[in-house]
Amino acid sequence: MAQRRTGTASLLKLLGQWHQDLPRTPVYRQLADGLRLLILDGRLPLESRLPGERELASALGLSRTTVATALAQLRDEGYLLSRHGSGSIAVLPEGTGPVSALPGFTPVLDLSTAALSAGPEIHRAYTHALMALPEHLNSTGYDQHGLPELREVIARRYVERGLPTSAEQIMVVNGAVSGFGLILRLLTGPGDRVVIDHPTYPMALAAIKGASCRPVAVSLPETGWDTDGLSATIAQTSPRLAYLLPDFHNPTGRCMDARTRATVAEIAARTHTAIVVDETMVDLWFDAPAPAPLAAYDRADKIITLGSAGKSFWGGLRLGWIRASSRTIASLIQVRGAMDLGTPVLEQLAAISLFKEADTFLPERRAILRQRRDACGEAIKELFPDWRITQAEGGLSWWVELPKPLASAFAAGAEAIGIRIGAGPRFGTEGSFERYLRLPFSLESTAMRSALERLQPLWQHLAQTGNVSVRGGAVV
Amino acid sequence: MAQRRTGTASLLKLLGQWHQDLPRTPVYRQLADGLRLLILDGRLPLESRLPGERELASALGLSRTTVATALAQLRDEGYLLSRHGSGSIAVLPEGTGPVSALPGFTPVLDLSTAALSAGPEIHRAYTHALMALPEHLNSTGYDQHGLPELREVIARRYVERGLPTSAEQIMVVNGAVSGFGLILRLLTGPGDRVVIDHPTYPMALAAIKGASCRPVAVSLPETGWDTDGLSATIAQTSPRLAYLLPDFHNPTGRCMDARTRATVAEIAARTHTAIVVDETMVDLWFDAPAPAPLAAYDRADKIITLGSAGKSFWGGLRLGWIRASSRTIASLIQVRGAMDLGTPVLEQLAAISLFKEADTFLPERRAILRQRRDACGEAIKELFPDWRITQAEGGLSWWVELPKPLASAFAAGAEAIGIRIGAGPRFGTEGSFERYLRLPFSLESTAMRSALERLQPLWQHLAQTGNVSVRGGAVV
């Protein structure tokens, strides 16, 4: 197949701080580690062609032998394919899915995904759904808008949160990521700019790049949001839209306060910029629920809200929704056929049932998560005293600050002992956040502690000596 | 929100033969009808800005008053929004989803979708799925590859059709359209060319354009496929991939013979061009099953096959799959996160059950369709003696050839009496196929005949007098 090409400048930006002063880890190995992580994370487009050895060596300021050795190692491991005259193609080793392991270390413990398993309400909901199914079987089943009853219950939840909403303003989609893809399809074209929080949710970043748009980062300050920065960035770059995660932010777990929401809505109105608000985590609060939805401050029909059943209910129930003006919803429905032909009827029926009992099971889900968050926080403080964590107000993960920019090296070592973790650069553009990790606290506390205990010697070796050799699943 | 712009040249191409010699239909009405259909079909991007009145009038060779009157009518109907200084924006009237009607004529009878309702096997399958669900609830439920057991049964069906396939070569997706979007995301970038049959499946065309790629049409001859044309087009345009519908072609219902399959596979290998084969209709044959899959002739790992449960089982079960080399599958899984986070677990469990009993209920489904095809064909011959139809070998619809290029005018009139039909131009690029309609025969025969009887006077008036005035749901 014809190949796309990743340019040298792009590759350098993606690699970021790949090279550390680690005397016992050869430079070629560090380069190979950096490239492998880019491929595993999906940040380096698969099936794309890398720059040639000579070009790469010159751009990286390395000898051609060093680059050739690194590429040879990746070829041996199955991450690169060589084609006569066409250089190296980024691929995954045969049989490597995103949650499988390097050869010999299955199954991987996947700490790169933050989500809970299902509660008893899920089976109950599908049972109700099956009882309601027969009246829908006498149709073709294609449903691009969503069942009216489901749109009603979703609208009602917005009303309860202080945001008047009708069923016409709701569209049911196959999850928040899928909904965001649809919004990008409607409102953007190749080369358009999309403003993001920085760090942000990796799949949103992937969706923006996948739509051939350019993410424009507004850095999050120590706490809260930088609305001056948002306003200035919008003024300078004229983005098509901005994507924000106010309730709760992924990966930092922070919550946007009411005053900031009002300011963001005012910026959207003043600059005529659409803002996509992803509320996937909104039900997962610990101390207090989030303020009224950002869209409640919208006076100019600029805010499009994304919701998801994946975290509140279960990830195996693939359903999300979009809230916008009924005109925007009608336009989204019209473009949807180019992406998918609707949301499964049974999933929708199950979601109706879950929304109806949400207020009985969500408190319990929050209590479980709060306990896991606290236990995981204690374990981090005990096992990794040099890591810095800030209390998450909601969501499913810690955003860990490391004392040194070693996130990619650590993630590469963790991968080799069968644990996949989200290195900071997955959450940013151009290789930033090398001093950060996202650690989910959604895993049951004992399992999480055991994973952290396995990671501890790896971190110690890495931080002290730069040696991250792993053999037979153990750090040596 | 910032607006994209549809250029004058693009709009003219989309409009195609909008202007007929219809003495009793004013030109402004014909122009409004043409534009409305483009908006309703999704061929004119929603939220995009139209050229200005003056520019449009000059390009169309019309007076500015005529253009202004047409645009004013569309504005009154809710299909255009005017913004001070920024011209007209294409929108849908509030509350207009793709299957709702013009105000006052609900519900629309939707003959633009070709699909069957569910058989009793669907409820049975979900019941089995619910029994199998508990063992999956102790996971996060996110599944980008597909349940191993489902991939096994899908692989087995390919083996039975003469194509050796392992479960690693299968990936479960949210329908064939969604799978095609994923393939486009992996293999193409903006501006790349994608070769298509012409006519072709409108959603595939929408997916190609939505990925900012350029469709390059290879016209279908009277029968079969034009492999010389395919070969020459690939040589001349160096496309990223080609999208073909050999079993069975949508909208024509034809089936590619074994020799042509071998030739197409040889062209793919020789030109190093990936070919996406959409087999959505493969189970819906009438006289004989399709030959071995096109991929069975593949000697160069160039053929990617798409399958779907939407037509064989039920459209409300949103599930499809991709068959490719395990390396390509691994790459597709990696890019998937930018588009959706997986296929619902319960849908997958239901699909396992359906595949296991497919050979018992599919013959009955085919028998129902064969009977409906024949009844619908008889009704067409009787009520529309000047239409030409060619026997469909499989699939769900007739590709009707009209004696005059009146498809868009006819579809506009049908819309006004509450019947949505797929005018030929939906199935092609740049306004072609004005002499064609796609009529599904999936509707129950009595209902279909009654729809055709309602359409008959409309056609007669249109063909004879050019008068398609509709008042109160009746042709006047």
Describe this protein's structure.
Two copies of one chain form a homodimer. Chain A is an alpha/beta fold and 476 residues long. Chain A has three domains: 8-90, Winged helix-like DNA-binding domain superfamily/Winged helix DNA-binding domain (Arc Repressor Mutant, subunit A, Orthogonal Bundle), CATH 1.10.10; 109-118 and 360-475, Aspartate Aminotransferase, domain 1 (Alpha-Beta Complex), CATH 3.90.1150; 120-358, Aspartate Aminotransferase, domain 2, CATH 3.40.640.10. Chain A is built from 15 helices and 17 strands. A seven-stranded mixed sheet of chain A has the order 6-12-11-10-9-7-8, with helices on both faces. In chain A, strand 16 and strand 17 (474-475) form a beta hairpin.
The percent range for strand residues of chain A is 5-15%
Q: How many whole angstroms does the radius of gyration of chain A measure?
A: 23 Å
- Named CATH architecture of the largest domain in chain A: 3-Layer(aba) Sandwich
User: Which pair of protein chains has the largest interface, and what are the residue counts?
Assistant: A-B, 91 and 91 residues
Helicity level of chain A, as a percent range?
A: 40-55%
Count of DSSP helices of chain A?
15
The number of domains of chain A is: 3
| The first-level CATH class name of the largest domain in chain A | Alpha Beta
The coarse silhouette of chain A is: globular
Termini separation of chain A (Å)? 41 Å
Could you say which structural class the secondary elements and strand pairing of chain A correspond to?
alpha/beta
Strand order of the largest sheet of chain A: 6-12-11-10-9-7-8
Task: Output the CATH topology of the largest domain in chain A.
Answer: Aspartate Aminotransferase, domain 2
